[in-house]
Amino acid sequence: MKEVLVPLDGSEHAELALASASDVAKALGAGICLVAVHPADEELWAAAQIDLTAELSHRRVWLEGYLEGVARKLRADVPDVRWEVRQGDVSGQLRDAAAAEDTAIVAIATSGEAGFQGIPSTSVTDRLVRAKLKPVLVVPPHADSTAGTGLLVPLDGSTAGAAALSFARELAKTGGAPLHLVHVVNANPGWAIAEDAQERLTTALRDRGTEYLGSVAQTSETTAVLEGPVLDAVLDYAAEHDCGLVLLATHGRSGPERIELGSVADGIVRAADRPVILVPAGA
């Protein structure tokens, strides 16, 4: 069975990812795997002739009890919840867990500060996102639980964007959530041009965007061509159309008429008041 992987460290902050993880698991018909990593470097302590046997055993027992308690609560909504305690390098252990065949997506709570802040450290969370092994669900600290059931997918015409759309359709298929596809255009060429030329350029970009969305959208999906800075356009649309989840490709092709998702994904994650799923190409 496919699983939603949720790294936990015992903190309330890390647990902020659980509600969204549960929703995604139900939409995918998946289970949940809770994972905690004890970062003790046994080789280092052994080299220093320090015996941590008792401490490691105590910590493992505590983590096992903690994870089972969390799992017990989750099973009321998602029957298949398991947990595991790993030991070693946190980043490496979580990367291995994410790479497992059964892992469909990783769910992480973030602090919303600069960069991908989360548990158990900025660098670890950032590596999980940038490893592009699986989609990563990032949940901001003040995620609006009433933001709506819609799924929003910004598309830029790239194959990476197609991966985000495919994953969104998989989520929508089971849960029946409305799916919104948007394409953002910005007619500013980077230098001053005449007003009428600006209008013609905007019209041409909008027409191209409309044609593109029409070529990829299915009958039941809502489409819209938006204008302006990508971050503002995407988040404003999400708020106005009750989209509780935004799905982004982790990179996109460059070009004046396309979203450079790789350059704005971090900004959207930091600014969003709702969960964001980052989908790598080929996921």
Number of strands: 10
Q: Unreliable segments (pLDDT under 50, ≥5 consecutive)?
A: 113-121, 252-261
**Strand share of the residues?**
15-25%
Q: Please report the first level of CATH classification, the CATH class of the largest domain.
A: Alpha Beta
Content-based structural category: alpha/beta
The number of distinct helices, counting runs of at least 4 residues, comes to 9
Instruction: Write the H/E string, N to C.
Output: EHEHHEHEHEEHEHEHEHE
CATH architecture call of the largest domain: 3-Layer(aba) Sandwich
Give the biggest sheet. Answer: 10 strands, mixed
Record the strand order, biggest sheet.
3-2-1-4-5-10-9-6-7-8
Average pLDDT works out at 84
- The name of the CATH superfamily of the largest domain reads HUPs
C-alpha-based Rg, rounded: 21 Å
Helix residue percentage: 40-55%
Shape verdict: elongated
Please name the CATH topology of the largest domain: Rossmann fold
- Give the CA-CA distance, first to last residue: 17 Å
How many discrete domains? 2
